[in-house]
Please model this.
Amino acid sequence: EPLFSSDGASWMTSRDVQFKAILDFIRANYAAAIDVPQMASAAGVSERECYRIIETCAGTTPAAYLRAYRINRACELLTHTTRTVQAIARQCGFATASHLGQVFKEQIGCTPSSYRAARQNLDSTGQKSH
Model:
Protein backbone atom coordinates (compact mmCIF):
# COMPACT_ATOMS: atom_id res chain seq x y z
CA GLU A 1 0.00 0.00 0.00
CA PRO A 2 2.27 2.82 -1.22
CA LEU A 3 -0.33 5.43 -0.26
CA PHE A 4 0.23 4.62 3.39
CA SER A 5 3.98 4.11 3.41
CA SER A 6 5.85 6.24 5.89
CA ASP A 7 7.93 7.97 3.21
CA GLY A 8 4.74 8.89 1.33
CA ALA A 9 3.07 10.46 4.35
CA SER A 10 4.07 13.95 3.22
CA TRP A 11 1.80 13.79 0.15
CA MET A 12 -1.21 12.18 1.83
CA THR A 13 -4.21 14.46 2.14
CA SER A 14 -5.79 15.04 5.54
CA ARG A 15 -8.68 12.79 4.43
CA ASP A 16 -6.16 10.03 3.57
CA VAL A 17 -4.63 10.38 7.03
CA GLN A 18 -8.07 10.28 8.67
CA PHE A 19 -9.13 7.25 6.61
CA LYS A 20 -5.89 5.47 7.54
CA ALA A 21 -6.54 6.24 11.22
CA ILE A 22 -10.03 4.72 10.92
CA LEU A 23 -8.65 1.64 9.14
CA ASP A 24 -5.89 1.23 11.72
CA PHE A 25 -8.52 1.40 14.48
CA ILE A 26 -10.68 -1.22 12.73
CA ARG A 27 -7.69 -3.53 12.17
CA ALA A 28 -6.69 -3.28 15.83
CA ASN A 29 -10.21 -3.64 17.27
CA TYR A 30 -12.40 -5.57 14.80
CA ALA A 31 -12.89 -8.45 17.27
CA ALA A 32 -14.52 -6.11 19.80
CA ALA A 33 -17.90 -4.40 19.70
CA ILE A 34 -16.90 -1.15 17.99
CA ASP A 35 -19.08 1.61 16.66
CA VAL A 36 -18.92 4.78 14.58
CA PRO A 37 -18.27 7.10 17.55
CA GLN A 38 -15.16 5.07 18.38
CA MET A 39 -14.01 5.04 14.75
CA ALA A 40 -14.53 8.79 14.53
CA SER A 41 -12.68 9.39 17.78
CA ALA A 42 -9.71 7.35 16.53
CA ALA A 43 -9.43 9.69 13.55
CA GLY A 44 -10.20 12.86 15.50
CA VAL A 45 -13.31 13.63 13.46
CA SER A 46 -17.04 13.87 14.07
CA GLU A 47 -19.32 10.89 13.49
CA ARG A 48 -20.79 12.64 10.44
CA GLU A 49 -17.31 13.22 9.02
CA CYS A 50 -16.43 9.58 9.69
CA TYR A 51 -19.40 8.54 7.53
CA ARG A 52 -18.24 10.95 4.79
CA ILE A 53 -14.64 9.72 4.88
CA ILE A 54 -15.55 6.05 4.60
CA GLU A 55 -18.17 6.73 1.93
CA THR A 56 -15.66 8.75 -0.11
CA CYS A 57 -12.66 6.47 0.36
CA ALA A 58 -14.31 3.04 0.46
CA GLY A 59 -17.69 3.64 -1.19
CA THR A 60 -19.68 2.21 1.69
CA THR A 61 -20.91 2.88 5.22
CA PRO A 62 -18.77 2.38 8.34
CA ALA A 63 -20.91 -0.58 9.45
CA ALA A 64 -20.71 -2.24 6.04
CA TYR A 65 -16.95 -1.68 5.88
CA LEU A 66 -16.47 -3.20 9.34
CA ARG A 67 -18.69 -6.17 8.44
CA ALA A 68 -16.74 -6.77 5.22
CA TYR A 69 -13.43 -6.53 7.08
CA ARG A 70 -14.62 -9.07 9.64
CA ILE A 71 -15.81 -11.44 6.91
CA ASN A 72 -12.46 -11.12 5.08
CA ARG A 73 -10.64 -12.02 8.30
CA ALA A 74 -13.01 -14.97 8.80
CA CYS A 75 -12.20 -16.16 5.26
CA GLU A 76 -8.48 -16.05 6.04
CA LEU A 77 -8.95 -17.98 9.28
CA LEU A 78 -11.23 -20.55 7.68
CA THR A 79 -8.68 -21.13 4.94
CA HIS A 80 -5.50 -21.17 7.01
CA THR A 81 -6.48 -22.54 10.44
CA THR A 82 -8.39 -25.45 11.92
CA ARG A 83 -10.16 -23.30 14.52
CA THR A 84 -13.85 -24.00 14.99
CA VAL A 85 -16.37 -21.75 13.29
CA GLN A 86 -17.50 -20.62 16.78
CA ALA A 87 -13.92 -19.62 17.70
CA ILE A 88 -13.50 -17.79 14.39
CA ALA A 89 -16.84 -16.03 14.91
CA ARG A 90 -15.71 -14.71 18.31
CA GLN A 91 -12.27 -13.77 16.99
CA CYS A 92 -13.86 -11.79 14.16
CA GLY A 93 -16.34 -9.85 16.29
CA PHE A 94 -19.47 -11.97 15.87
CA ALA A 95 -21.34 -12.98 19.03
CA THR A 96 -22.24 -16.43 17.71
CA ALA A 97 -21.34 -18.85 14.95
CA SER A 98 -24.94 -18.52 13.78
CA HIS A 99 -24.58 -14.75 13.28
CA LEU A 100 -21.28 -15.26 11.43
CA GLY A 101 -22.99 -17.87 9.27
CA GLN A 102 -25.86 -15.54 8.41
CA VAL A 103 -23.62 -12.60 7.47
CA PHE A 104 -21.12 -14.90 5.73
CA LYS A 105 -23.82 -16.41 3.53
CA GLU A 106 -25.13 -12.92 2.62
CA GLN A 107 -21.64 -11.66 1.72
CA ILE A 108 -19.91 -14.75 0.29
CA GLY A 109 -22.85 -16.88 -0.86
CA CYS A 110 -22.12 -20.03 1.13
CA THR A 111 -21.70 -21.18 4.73
CA PRO A 112 -18.38 -20.84 6.55
CA SER A 113 -18.05 -24.64 6.66
CA SER A 114 -18.60 -25.08 2.92
CA TYR A 115 -16.17 -22.20 2.24
CA ARG A 116 -13.55 -23.94 4.37
CA ALA A 117 -14.16 -27.31 2.71
CA ALA A 118 -13.78 -25.83 -0.76
CA ARG A 119 -10.55 -23.99 0.15
CA GLN A 120 -8.98 -26.93 1.94
CA ASN A 121 -9.47 -29.10 -1.15
CA LEU A 122 -7.07 -26.85 -3.08
CA ASP A 123 -3.39 -27.63 -3.24
CA SER A 124 -0.67 -25.01 -2.72
CA THR A 125 -0.99 -23.82 -6.33
CA GLY A 126 -4.70 -23.10 -5.92
CA GLN A 127 -5.71 -26.10 -8.04
CA LYS A 128 -8.19 -28.78 -6.99
CA SER A 129 -6.32 -31.65 -5.41
CA HIS A 130 -7.17 -35.13 -6.64
